[in-house]
Amino acid sequence: MKKLKAKKRTLRGRKVKQLRRQGILPANIYGRGITSQAIELPQQEFLRIFKESGETEVIELMLEGEKEARPVLVRHLQLHPVTEEILHVDFLQVNLKEEITAAVPLVFVGQSPAVKEGRGILLELMDELEVRALPTQIPSEIKVDISQLQEVNDFLTVADLPLPDGVTAEKEAEELICKIEAQKTAAEEEEEEAAEETEAAAEEAESSSEATPQEEKASDAATN
Length: 224
Hints:
The chain is α+β, with helices and mostly antiparallel strands. The chain is built from five helices and 13 strands.
């Protein structure tokens, strides 16, 4: 397991900006049966570890003043709305002997013959899958092999995914992961766009022709 060192945090609220200016990241640890703890840790060290472990690998968090490391997962990142800089982290402390749920990224690999030959396009209907497993058995990613999608309307479901031993999906087995949809011709796309424009124009005309009760009263008053 990768290791991180942290300290208990005393600064709260807006005062945490002082920490960020010093390259220190504010964070919290929470979990079942434990008291939530405000902590702080070196930002660059966290970024280095997070780049490798993501949100699915257990990290050993050593809190200053404690003898044993805490097994944690990165559970939530608060990002700056403009720069997307990480402003705050929530760590979930886990019991290594108890199963938990986690969202694992889906990675689409291979090439569909139907797509390669221009007969269809791939629709990715999921980009992650929630699974249940022991914390140390959660995979960093799940590969979806689309090379088996040879014809238009072929699809893959949750049941088709190669999950490791000890890992179960939290979604229904028949739920769609991806499918091949027929490639539309230029004429079909133009026809669809024209239909959408006609429908939009009709809706606009209908809404403009419907006077509100207030408008009707104002019109009657002006007439009288």
